[in-house]
Amino acid sequence: MQRTVVVIGGGISGLTACYHLSKNSSFSKVVLLESSGRLGGWIRSSRTEDGAIFEHGPRALRTAGAPGRITLQMVSELGLEKEILPVTGENPASKNRYLYVHGKIHKLPSGLSGVVTTTSPFTRPLVWTALRELIVRSGKDQDETMHAFFERRFGKELADIAIDSLCRGVFAGDCRKLSIRSCFPMIFEAERQSGSVIVGMMLSKEKDRRFDSNELFRRSKRERWSQWSLREGLQMIPEAMEDTLKTRGVEIHLHTPVERLGRTTDCWEVRTSDGTIKADHIFSAAPAKALSSLLHPSAKPLAEQLNQLHYVTVAVVNLEYEGSVIASPGFGHLVPSFEERSILGIVYDSVAFPEHDRNGAPSTRLTVMLGGDWFAKDIGDPEKVSHEQLLQIAAGAVRRHLGVQAEPIRHFVHVQKDCIPQYTLGHWKRLEHISGYLRYHRLPLSLIGASYQGVSVNDCIYRARIAVEKLSRGITSF
Question: What interhelical angle do 65-77 and 457-472 show, nearest 10?
Answer without folding.
Answer: 80
